[in-house]
Amino acid sequence: MKVAIIGCGHIAHKHAEAIRLTEGMTLCAVCDTNRITVEAFALQYGADAYTDAETMLGRKDIELVCICTPSGLHAGLAVMAAEAGKHLVVEKPIALTLADADAIALACRRHGVKCAVVHPNRFRPAIVQLRRALAEGRFGKLSHISANVRWNRNQAYYDQAFWRGTKAYDGGVLMNQAIHQLDLMLWLMGPVASVKAMTATRLRKMECEDVGIAVVEFAGGALGVIEAAATVYPRNYEESLAVFGERGTAVIGGATANWIRHWSFEDMEPEAAQRFLQETNRDPFGVPGHQCIIADMRDAVREDREPAVTAEDGRRALKLVLDICRGAGDEAEAEAASAAAPGSDNRWEETAI
């Protein structure tokens, strides 16, 4: 399968490495509007360089395109690629507005191509075990879930490119960093019924929030707590996910949520739980998530099935971010969520979804 990449920034290297390591896939073309960047990238990975996406997409041998541009540019390029008959792997978030997410999905349906969204945390060994325990009903009736992203993105991070931290091209800590945790919450717990939230821009000079806190109620009745920050000093401190039920508790944490920190169930002796924890933590990273996404898309095309993380999955995570911003009174984000903002004074607001 011949693959192309549009956008040759930092994240594109993860896609290129994933393609290189995936059997039956070859990176044949890369595109970026910056000629120096794209030529260096093409030389590094042995691909043809383009500065015009339409020209590159005219190649009939390309079957799959990875969209790795700033988020606000995803929709236009993804629709163009779908119209050219190319399958899609779109970096997170799928888009910055629901209208753009819907345009991507519609273009894929009309032109008979598949679309995967890059939410690679689903493939982490600890998360796979957590999902299995939930599916088996080992937690019993669920009480609540908490998700924390306590990271550092300093001012230099936002200053290194014109689009970072902007509403038009990037978004804030919820859209750019915490959206992976929000995707996991939805994947594990199901749809959200209501949101209460606050966001603020406390320390960084940017258009969007650098810290956000939300409480959600899931359709099944369980509650969720979300904390996301790019303001933690002096470096990334913690990414964690914890699930609490009447017959079980599980906590996954670390600087990135890769390690099982606590695993306790009514149907499991403490010694067995400790052995399980040690075994899972022996290889906490497993196969890199981007490689899993790329390999799954290869198989989805071969088997004519939906990819593991669909465009609809990407839309759900996007909608939750927008609903949190709406609940916090961010009117600009609320417009993207296609609903009226309850207020702009950043007080706690409850929003029905």
Q: Main attributes?
A:
353 residues; alpha/beta; Dihydrodipicolinate Reductase, domain 2; six-stranded parallel β-sheet; 14 strands; 24% strand; globular; disordered C terminus
Contiguous helical run count: 12
Overall 3D shape: globular
The low-confidence runs, each spanning 5 or more residues with pLDDT under 50, are 336-353
Order of helices and strands: EHEHEHEHEHEHEHHEEEEEEHHHHE
Q: Total number of β-strand segments?
A: 14
Task: Average the pLDDT over all residues and give the rounded result.
Answer: 93
Biggest beta sheet summary: 8 strands, mixed
Can you list the strand order of the major beta sheet? 13-12-11-7-10-9-8-14
Portion in helices: 25-40%
Q: What is the CATH third-level topology name of the largest domain?
A: Dihydrodipicolinate Reductase, domain 2
**Rg (C-alpha, Å):** 20 Å
Strand fraction equals 15-25%
Class by alpha and beta content? alpha/beta
Architecture (CATH level 2) name of the largest domain: 2-Layer Sandwich
Distance between the termini: 40 Å
In the residues, how many domains can be counted? 2
CATH superfamily of the largest domain: Dihydrodipicolinate Reductase, domain 2
CATH class descriptor of the largest domain: Alpha Beta
